[in-house]
Amino acid sequence: MGTEKKYIKDVDRLIPRPDIALEVLQMAHDTQCSIPEMAHRIEMDPNLTANMLRLANSAYYGHMREIKSVKDIILRLGLETVKIIAITGASAGLMKSPQQAYNLDPGSLWHHSHATAILSTIIAKYAKIKEFGSIYTASLLHDIGKVILNRPLQLAISNNKQPGRKFSSLIELEQCLLDTDHAKVGMALLQKWGLPDDVTIPVGFHHTQHGKEAEQINVRVVTLANFLVESIGIRSILPENFTFNVQDFIDQNQELPEVPSFQENMEKIIDEFFYQLNQATKLAR
Ligand SMILES: [Fe+2]
Ligand SMILES: [Fe+2]
User: Fold this and answer.
1) How does pLDDT run across 54-104, given as a tens digit for each residue?
2) Region 3-7+96-282: CATH code
3) Ligand index nearest the alpha carbon of residue 104
4) Which of 98, 257, 267, 269 has the fewest Cβ atoms surrounding its Cβ within 10 A?
5) How far is the CA of 79 from the centre of ligand 1 (A)?
């Protein structure tokens, strides 16, 4: 760890430390989590409460009567769903701004991250991974480093001494101009915020193909989901008549991280992903 510390030093000015959201994130990862306590903490943050109510009332959770309070969410949707909604609600606020250096319009990073989280959860379910809360959180936050590096990268690009130089990947460009990358900076930020290793490591290694960390199952699932969402080309809300040909993708023979039961179920996984993504984004149209 080195350069990334420099970029997160003043992070509190850039992303105000979302204290309540972080506490809720940590509570959601705690097996002893007390629901009344969690509801109480959530209600102390009006933005988080509003985000959660909006999500809970979305078509995704398909219920008849409007949910009006955090306690209602807990009673009607159950603990596991509440955790997912709390994590989603807490993360949404962190990445709504545009990231011009990465060509991301307002909301695009959020849509990409949300899509990655939905897909990782489905991949994890097929791989029979029981504890997928950390995979879900890591997927939502995997590109949070872009929020921090947006400004430094913009400056570095405008001061670039070799403007004609081509880079084979975004990571290579970031490494060359900033001496670090958004995955490492994201991991350093989440470590600073006190999130557990099973969330921070997949964030830090989601562009790494080899090595001890890249072999961990949480990392492989997040890396695979991010790669697929990028290949599918989801930049913001899914357009009405969007199609993605799984067979064409398989024919390209890309090197993908190995995750149990993925290859043989890819068609089903992608179908389920599009269905869930459409349900989840209907509200945002
Ligand atoms: Fe990334
Ligand atoms: Fe990504």
Assistant:
1) 878 876 666 667 888 888 887 777 777 777 777 777 777 778 788 889 888
2) 1.10.3210.10
3) 2
4) 267
5) 30
**Amino acid identity, position 150:** N
Q: Which residue has the higher pLDDT, 57 or 123?
A: 123
Domain(s) labelled CATH 1.10.3210.10 in the chain stretch across: 3-7+96-282
Among candidate residues 34, 146, 164, 15, the one with its CA nearest the CA of residue 90 = 15
Question: Which residues neighbour ligand 1 (ion) by CB within 5 Å?
Answer: 143
Ligand 2 centre to CA of 201 (Å) is: 15
Indicate whether 1 pLDDT > 60.
no
Centroid of ligand 2 to alpha carbon of 112 (angstroms)? 7
pLDDT over 70 (residue 241): no
List CB-based neighbours of ion ligand 2 within 5 Å: 143, 226
Ligand number nearest to the C-alpha of 226? 2
Residue 285 has pLDDT above 50, yes or no: no
Quick one: 170 exposed, middle or buried, by C-beta within 10 A (0-12, 13-18, 19+)? middle
User: How far does residue 142's CA lie from ligand 1's centre (Å)?
Assistant: 6
User: Would you say residue 16 has pLDDT above 70?
Assistant: no
The pLDDT value given to residue 11:
73
Which residue, 256, 273, 172, is CA-closest to 221?
256
Question: CA 160 to CA 154: how far, in whole Å?
Answer: 10
